[in-house]
Design a protein that fits this description.
Oligomer: single chain
Strand content: under 5%
Shape: elongated
Number of helices: 5
Number of strands: 0
Largest sheet: none
């Protein structure tokens, strides 16, 4: 199976969509609410956490299903999935380091 056809599998693209949604959520909250320091994290933080954590079983399913069948394309998709999730988490870490959230 090729990289392009593997990316069309739901277990390949759903984690990417979830990471992109988490990334967009960060900027949507910052653009609408601005930089605030509430006592409670609030609903956006919970949604972000769910989007990131719920990727784990989907990525695990993808790895179990495709790594043995098509190792090279599957590894590339896994790297893409991990990179997308890490970019969303790194954005939050960077903002927290600057005192923005």
């Amino acid at each position: 199976m090729t990289f392009g056809s593997l990316c069309k599998q739901p277990s390949a693209f759903i984690p990417l969509v979830m990471s992109f949604a988490a990334f967009l959520l960060i900027f949507a909250v910052l653009s609408t609410v601005g930089v605030t320091h509430p006592q409670d994290e609030g609903a956006p933080a919970r949604i972000f956490q769910l989007l990131i954590v719920l990727q784990v079983p989907i990525v695990a399913f993808f790895a179990l299903k495709w790594l043995l069948r098509s190792p090279r394309p599957a590894l590339l998709v896994l790297l893409l999935q991990v990179g997308a999730a890490l970019s969303a988490v790194a954005t939050i870490a960077w903002l927290e380091g600057r005192g923005a959230v």
